[in-house]
Design goal:
The protein is mostly helical. It is built from five helices and no strands. The chain has one domain.
């Protein structure tokens, strides 16, 4: 992937609304790999979810996908500062 392609993809994704279903799909993809980089990606996804849908949905995703056990992400964590 070229630099221009990566930048274009980033800006394209920034303008797509993060629906709860889309967040679930993206997090499930990250769980397949399970590295520290994927943990950070999940944190960024949760930041977008929190910004658009609130803490209750973030906590629900953490609980449903067992992110506390898999990536040590606790319910009630404020991820909103990550996406700024």
């Amino acid at each position: 992937m070229s630099c221009n392609s990566a930048i274009g993809t980033y800006f394209h994704l920034k303008f797509i609304t993060m629906t709860p279903q889309r967040a679930l799909e993206l997090i499930e993809q990250q769980l397949q790999f399970g590295s520290g980089y994927n943990r950070n990606a999940v944190r960024l996804i949760l930041a977008e979810v929190q910004r658009e849908h609130g803490q209750a949905l973030v906590d629900s995703l953490i609980r449903t996908l067992e992110l506390d056990e898999k990536f040590d992400l606790a319910q009630g964590t404020d991820f909103s500062t990550l996406s700024k």
